[in-house]
Amino acid sequence: MTNLGGGAMAAIIVEQVARPVPFRHVAAAVVGNALECYDFIVYSYFAVQIGRAFFPNHTAFVSLMLSLVAFGAGFISRPLGAVVIGRLGDRVGRKPAMLLSFGLMGASMLAMAITPTYAQIGLAAPLMVLAARLVQGFAIGGDIGSTTTFLLEAAPDGRRGLATAWQLATQGVAAVASGLVGLIIGQLFGAEGLQAWGWRAAFLLGALVLPFGLILRRGLPETLEASDPMRIAELASRHGRTIGLAFLIIGNINVSYYVLGYMTTYAVTTLGMAPAAAFGAPIVFGLCTLAFSLAGGALSDKIGRKPVMIWPRVALLLTAYPAYFLLARSRDPVSLLIVTGVLAALSQAAGAGALVAVTEALPRSARCLALSVIYASAAAVFGGLTQPALAWLLHNTQGGLAPAYLLIAATAVGLVAIIAMPETAPKRR
């Protein structure tokens, strides 16, 4: 055996600790999350057209609400997917769980794109759309836990925040991509083209990612260590407080994300802006998500998770009302972009620290299952109801300030949970 001196051994240890996760592994892990985000935003963009195609009604508001409810139905199946795929990730491996979830996700998106309209096949059309959303929700329910767990476990201690932040950052990439797709399709084909087939083209473009994503994920290493997975009852009894706090924190992330993700529909239906102007909001949202998620994750590696979780949320709490007040009064594209950018920067910087903190706080032997169930349950309760609730509130209240009230309420609850959560970042030596 070679006898290494203390300095040489220390150098090797430092190199191992500092070694980042290869970018191809990061890309493979987060491609499913990016596809989910793309699907969500595209559906939100074209909720009106989808409602007319599959849920025709003489009242435009009812048609839109049915379209949003169908989208929200996918959140119902998320907890089931979280249990099934999450348990698979803890028993068999993170990689098989990621492959299964991504395959189902891509198939459901393709089904959404090719389903005939209500005028063509009648009641079967909305039922097929509903089935596609349920499969999509099942897949997403297990994907977030397995991919976030992989990113955390594959990264060295000093880079966990940055590595895990890519899970949120790729939502920004997808938001920009979907915004550009929506903008180009809207500009080229107009209202009739959008209704006839333009919205389907947007879904088909997303489905093209499927084969590339599967190839990337097949090349991933496995990070699951040989262990006996913790039973659900034991997990709940031993880590109930952590799970409860994590549920509230992830719920806060979901409400913030879905309120800001509704900005395009809000700008068109409530503020009366032209669709071309409204499509600029998700592009700004995506760019801020990409930049500030990574900044928040990297900063959490340097100063800890809790400061990054707390202070941007405090700023969001203080700025949400004046930001929406300004937007509701001005109703111009510049104000829309500024408000979207400021709120997205604050929300996403805090979200990156929160995601890694929650994942670190969970026991490794049940991390995939626990994170999947927490995220899926929070998404089902908070994410699934946010946009239909927004549409209803905006329809039945005056002033257009309902998004601000929801942001303030969710942020206040999230801050209480964040303060109660212990610091999880590894102590710096």
Summarize the structure.
Helix content is 83%, strand content 0%. It has 18 helices and no strands.
Verbal overview:
It contains 18 helices and no strands. The protein is globular, with a radius of gyration of 21 Å. The protein is mainly α. 83% of the residues lie in helices and 0% in strands.
Total DSSP E strands: 0
| Order of helix and strand elements from N to C terminus | HHHHHHHHHHHHHHHHHH
Average pLDDT reading? 85
Distance between the termini: 29 Å
- Tell me the radius of gyration: 21 Å
Query: Helical amount among residues, as a percent range?
Result: over 70%
Query: How many strands, which pairing sense, and closed or not: the largest β-sheet?
Result: none
**Which structural class is indicated by helix and strand composition?**
mainly alpha
Proportion of strand residues: under 5%
Count of individual helical segments = 18
- Low-confidence stretches are 1-18
Principal-axes shape call: globular
Summarize the SSE layout with pairings.
Elements lengths: L5 H13 L4 H23 L1 H8 L5 H14 L4 H14 L2 H21 L3 H4 L2 H31 L5 H48 L1 H10 L13 H30 L1 H7 L5 H4 L1 H24 L1 H26 L2 H29 L5 H30 L5 H19 L9
Helix pairs in contact: 2-6, 2-8, 2-9, 2-10, 3-4, 4-8, 4-17, 5-6, 5-8, 5-17, 6-8, 6-9, 6-10, 8-9, 8-17, 9-14, 9-16, 11-16, 11-17, 11-18, 14-15, 14-16, 15-16, 15-18
Defining key terms:
429 residues; mainly alpha; 18 helices; 83% helix; disordered N terminus
